[in-house]
Amino acid sequence: MFNKCKVCESKVHEENxxxxxxxxxxxxxxxxxxxxxxxxxxxxxxxxxNTTNQYRTHQREYQKLKDNQRVKIGYSKKNILNFLxxxxxxxxxxxxxxxxxxxxxxxxxxxNYVGIEIDSKTVEKSHRIGLNIKKGAFTEMNxxxxxxxxxxxxxxxxxxxxxxxxxxxxxxxxxSNGYIGFTVPNYNKRLNYSENYKEKIFQSGPPIHLxxxxxxxIFNISEYYGFSVEFYKEKKFPYFNYKLxxxxxxxxxxxxxxxxGSTLQCVxxxx
Length: 271
Fold this sequence. Notes:
The chain is of the alpha/beta class. The chain has one domain: 3-Layer(aba) Sandwich (Rossmann fold). It is about 30% helix and about 25% strand. It has helices spanning about 40-50, 55-65, 75-85, 100-105, 120-130, 165-175, 215-225, 245-255; strands at about 10-15, 20-25, 30, 90-95, 110-115, 135, 150-155, 175-185, 210, 225-235, 265-270. The strands form 2 sheets. The protein has a 7-stranded mixed β-sheet, with helices on both faces. Helix 6 links the parallel strand 7 (about 150-155) and strand 8 (about 175-185). The radius of gyration is 18 Å and the shape is globular. The two termini are about 30 Å apart. The relative contact order is 0.15.
């Protein structure tokens, strides 16, 4: 059980009793105070990737890659990658590489890429299509025999129990003035909905998502670990689905500057 902030070790207060979430009084990070064992976490992702429909998209993406078809990497990933590729990087390490969507995309660039993925069955699939993805947790980055110009992690760090170790190892592994590029769900997107949903977070809860980010907490955490925020973006408008009434409601909110985008896009630079 976490009794203080998992990042800056400051005092915390209760944020969401139902999901056992607390919020740091200093850096504003929201996280699950319960600690899960490695076995529980690995078991959770084995079920998600391989025995449930929740991550069915990954199966479809793998089949497309296997058939030598292009797979769209998405708006948020593309923004982060475009920013980094314009910096003239030569080495990139991806945490949570999955079946290799980003790895496949980067084949068209002169980049030395290595991916790291915790789920063994997913890694096996990536090897069948010739992608350089290693099995393991994010800690495997410090076993690589080179420094990376950038570490990327798309929809990953919200899953990490030891967020402190991730940032410390990342800083150690990065080359001088290296970057961390990542996307995370926006915790404040819950504010788009009625106050009747006070304890709902509109994203996966523990043990899937363990950390919950806002613009404020990202800037605070970046400063704490010795990074500067080089790129930050929040999608201003909702994804359009004409069948949903909420789409039109959110468009009106966005026109008045009151809409909270679903995803936060960030690039941090090592000082």
